[in-house]
Specification:
single chain; 498 residues; alpha/beta; four-stranded parallel beta sheet; 20 strands; elongated
């Protein structure tokens, strides 16, 4: 994804060479190719005219010819170098006006620690939050977002539920991006900056982000990193050549060290380095950065005099009006027979997703042991500790999940065979587009033959706009399901298998 519109500075080869010299990479072989080759040779020849014999692999005749031709200029060159002020190491004093941004994705609760460390050094970050996850376990609360805003941090958009935008319908992608921005604006955090989930985007997704009112969209990668992309550019331009493809170093994770972080800044010939972080904690995730390393890095940036700015501060631009994209109205299940989907054993049916919780060992397969049609889905729990596992209509903004009306009851059903215990698990969509657990039906026992499980739900709570449900396996055993059903109803809830 390297953007060829960005050109490195003309002196970049020399800067690279200087780094190699400082790292002693050239002292083992003074005839290393590059702009310093002749200078290093001639200085050596002035000190020792017979030095041509010491350069293994170098043509001695060429060396001696070069020495006769160029040695008269060496004294002048060495004298000139002697009066050049010593170069201050880049780690001590920046040689170019590089700007750093600390961007933190997803809005997990541990990111409060990152905000506190930034505040310790008078710095501000950009927090790209998943609006549908706010106020749910493990994520930021609205009150914490208010504290971030009060401290001067920027709140950016990261969609309602963090899907890969390139794999869903374009209308659904528009709802994900626009609804997210509307929600954040309604909460008092009108965002101007967006980050693509999973760094997945194309020209259509870029256009949608622009049309939803954002000024910029950040991707991931395409700036050289210590462990990735050695041929990438060293920095992002200001302003970026494409504001909806803001480039960054590689994703920061547990393998990054303090020296890795420093090297990206030291190597940058000016411009902008937006770092991408996720969790700020010790050992909580592969995508985590230790709070201690973040603290040391920010202290180093402060002492070095490197400015740390939010994405909005770097990009500028006015806050644009929001563009609503309400959920699509859908009054039926999509693909209830589980027939449409990828033609492989691991493929999920179109518009269906896996879900579950607890510490269990689970497998899922497509099976031709179907109630009707060709395919059904089978879940196996090999070891069970708690929670459940299930498939259910994808929890989206209307492409797959059916719309539902507060105050109404619904009849849910599924055909099943099971060697374990099952029950219906239900979720509801909020006006923000986020999803929360709602309720569960009574436990249903095993059934060796195909049986139809049905349940009448309670009245849907106020503040709900959609529903998703699945028949869940809640013990060791297998569960095969097919031919799901969902209709409006109004009688009291009950459960049965027939």
């Amino acid at each position: 994804m390297l953007d060829q519109r960005f050109s490195l500075r003309d002196d970049e080869p020399q800067r690279e060479l200087a780094r190699k010299i400082e790292a002693n990479d050239l002292h083992k072989n003074p005839m290393h190719s590059g702009p310093a080759k002749d200078v290093r040779l001639l200085v050596h020849l002035q000190e020792s005219p017979s030095a041509c014999s010491s350069y293994v692999g170098f043509n001695r005749a060429e060396c001696e010819y070069s020495s006769m031709k160029l040695l008269p200029a060496v004294a002048l060159l060495v004298a000139a170098l002697a009066v050049v002020p010593a170069v201050v190491p880049a780690a001590a004093q920046p040689t170019s006006p590089v700007v750093v941004s600390i961007t933190i994705d997803d809005g997990t609760a541990d990111q409060v620690a990152g905000a506190d460390i930034l505040a310790r050094y008078g710095m501000r970050g950009t927090f790209y939050v998943i609006s549908g996850a706010i106020d749910t376990p493990g994520y930021l609360t609205r009150a914490q977002m208010e504290s971030l805003k009060a401290a001067g941090h920027e709140i950016g958009g990261h969609t309602v539920s963090h899907p890969d935008l390139t794999t869903i319908a374009l209308d659904e992608a528009r709802r994900q991006i626009c609804t997210d921005r509307v929600t954040l604006s309604d909460w008092g955090f009108p965002p101007t900056s967006f980050a693509y989930p999973y760094t997945a985007f194309n020209a259509d997704i870029q256009r949608v982000a622009r049309e939803c009112g954002y000024n910029s969209a950040r991707t991931l990668g395409d700036i050289r990193s210590p462990q990735d992309c050695p041929d990438c550019v060293l920095t992002e331009q200001v302003p970026p050549a494409d504001p909806f493809n803001v480039r960054t170093p590689d994703l920061i994770n547990t393998r990054w060290t303090l020296d890795d972080l420093k090297s990206v800044v030291v190597d940058a010939p000016g411009g902008w380095i937006p770092f991408v972080l996720h969790q700020i904690c010790d050992g909580c995730s592969e995508l985590a950065l230790s709070p201690a390393i973040l603290d040391q890095f920010l202290a180093w940036l402060r002492d070095r005099g490197t400015p740390v700015r939010t994405v909005q501060e770097v990009m500028g631009g006015a806050t644009k009006p929001v563009v609503p994209a309400p959920p699509a109205a859908r009054d039926e299940l999509v693909n209830p027979g589980l027939e449409n989907g990828p033609d492989n054993a691991d493929g999920l049916p179109q518009c269906w997703s896996t879900a579950g919780f607890g510490k269990n060992k689970v497998t899922r397969t497509r099976t031709d042991d179907a109630h009707s049609g060709r395919w059904a889905q089978r879940l196996d729990v090999i070891s069970y500790h708690d929670g459940d596992t299930k498939i259910l209509p994808s929890q989206d903004l209307g492409t797959c999940a059916p719309s539902a009306t507060p105050g109404r009851a619904y009849r849910v059903s599924a055909w099943f065979k099971s060697t374990g215990f099952t029950q219906f698990a239900l979720y509801r969509r909020l006006p923000t587009g986020g999803w929360v657990y709602w309720t569960a039906g009574p436990t249903i026992g095993p059934s060796d033959a195909w049986s139809r499980a049905t349940w009448m739900t309670p009245a849907l709570p106020r503040g709900s706009t959609g529903m998703s449900f699945g028949l869940a396996l809640v013990s060791v055993g297998s569960l095969t399901t097919d031919d799901y059903g969902w209709t409006r109803a109004s009688t009291a809830p009950r459960a049965k298998a027939s």
